[in-house]
Amino acid sequence: AFEHIPRDGIDAAAGRIYVGSADLLLHRSNVGNVVVATPEPSISSTLPIQAASIKAVLLCAKCSTPLGSLQNGTNVRLFKHCLGTTAAIFHSYTSDSVLVAQMLEVIEADGFFRFDVVDEAAADGARRLRVQVLSWDATIQTSEFPTPQKVLKVLFAVEKVGPNESELPSKELTATAALIDDVVERLQRSATLLPSSVVAGMSKGSIGFLFG
Fold first, then answer.
1. In this structure, what are the phi and psi dihedrals at residue 132, rounded to the nearest 5 degrees?
2. How far apart are CA 108 and CA 155, in angstroms?
3. Cα–Cα distance list, 21 to 26, 79, 97, 112, 182 (Å)
4. Which whole-number Å values give the CA distances from 151 to 50, 94, 133, 187, 198, in the listed order?
5. How far apart are CA 179 and CA 161, in angstroms?
6. 144 close to 189: Cβ distance less than 8 angstroms
């Protein structure tokens, strides 16, 4: 059975597939051909909050491509943009979709428009992707995208992880290093779509687009 999920916080149930904006939530017992990339945490019943926040990366058992995450031992989240199907039903999804879905939820629920995207397994010296959403209802159409695409117009910058010196409130989001790298590359490529007159004089980041 398929059910749409509006927000995080729903636990997987055996025999059901919950459909999110950019991912699918399944029970681990219903998922095969995946391997856990990092050792699963030992989940203590006395530490439910900490245990629920621990994730392990899931890889395809055949090609080792990251597919999603395992949380709390049973909740499997598979990113749509990582899944291939015979009918190619997920072909329009990209790595951007994962962040766009999270950002729109936060904007709607909490009113934050600034985000710090960090590696969920970050070590010293790791990068932070800082994003400020300028518009969440923009569309773009170019020779590369002949059909109008709905996008988030953002101001972005890549920095080393450290104290947040900005006095403006921001929301921290976590993602895998591979997803962050891919999103940064796509943002940098999308920034070239803007005329030079818009880019000139900017010192605190670049303007780019996240495709939802």
1. -120, 120
2. 19
3. 14, 10, 8, 19, 19
4. 34, 12, 11, 11, 18
5. 17
6. no
CB 210 within 8 A of CB 183: yes
**Cβ-contact 208, 187 below 8 angstroms:** yes
Residue at 39: amino acid letter: P
Give the separation between CA 22 and CA 84, rounded to whole angstroms: 14
Locate 101 and state its tokens. Answer: 């879905």
Coil/strand/helix, residue 98: helix
Map tokens 């949380």 to a residue.
71
| Neighbour tally for 186: CB within 10 Å | 17
Cite the beta strand spans of the chain per DSSP E: 2-4, 17-19, 23-27, 34-36, 55-60, 66-71, 75-79, 114-119, 127-140, 149-160, 171-175, 206-211
The residue to which tokens 């749509």 are assigned: 80
At 13 the three-state DSSP class reads coil
- Ranges of the chain whose pLDDT falls below 50: 39-53
125: tokens are 């010296």
Tokens of 106: 């936060």
Give burial (CB, 10 Å; 0-12/13-18/19+) of 98. buried
Sort strands 2-4 and 17-19 into parallel, antiparallel or unpaired.
parallel
Phi and psi at residue 157, to the nearest 5°: -155, 150
